[in-house]
Amino acid sequence: LTGRNELAERYDLLSLYAKEIPNITMKELRDNAINFIIAGRDTTAILLTWTCYELSLNPKVQDQVLQEVLTVSSSEDEHALTYEKVQQLKLLEAVLLETLRLHPSVPSMIRFAVEDITCPQGEVIRKGDGVIIFNYGLSRMPNLWENPTQFNPYRFYNQEKGYEPSYYPYFNVSPRLCLGKHVALMEAKIAIAKILTKYKFTLKQGQQFDPVFSATLQLKNGMEMFFEPRKIST
């Protein structure tokens, strides 16, 4: 706030807030900074962790994604990935969406009713009531997903119909759709693509993966993996 007069030279989000909202307080800036860190860093890091986990358990899919990356990014610039090329990584995007379905970075969330609502089965939610949405459980409901516990990225791959948004609330839905959804997926695509072209990864045997449900989907004992350098002819 003390440097408000110098904001013309800055292009970060907090500076934009301070410039566009003259009366913003230090607490509001702090809360927004925390939100950026939790929503924009931790969630993507967790998605990358679980994606490596699933690709380790499904080496055939790992090889298919690698082939897609090499095909799309083929260039003289060491497989450079431009924005346009990242958009072509459809199988990798499907892998990320399926990973989020099985291992949502935010396993549950709470929303508050803005008006009285009567649910289809007769339950009444009053205005102001908090409703907890258990994302982790939604992904395992057989009435919503075929073979729900199976890792199958092809359920999201080149599907003309797409998926029902209310079944997949991991980026929220409708007016509350996450503003950073496309940025997060792009970051994750680039990270996984870069890792895959340099390393083949496998899980260390004998580990037990116990999820910890908090603001984000943590692992009680972490996750150990082996990264083997790849030799890719160009």
Automatic annotation (TrEMBL):
Chaperone listed as a keyword: no
Pfam families: p450
Keyword set, alphabetical order: Heme, Iron, Metal-binding, Oxidoreductase
Cofactors that this protein relies on: heme
InterPro entries linked to this entry: Cyt_P450 (IPR001128), Cyt_P450_E_grp-I (IPR002401), Cyt_P450_sf (IPR036396)
A molecular function (GO) term: iron ion binding
Binding locations of heme: 178
Superkingdom to which the source organism belongs: Eukaryota
Protein family membership: Belongs to the cytochrome P450 family.
Name by which UniProt lists this protein: Cytochrome P450
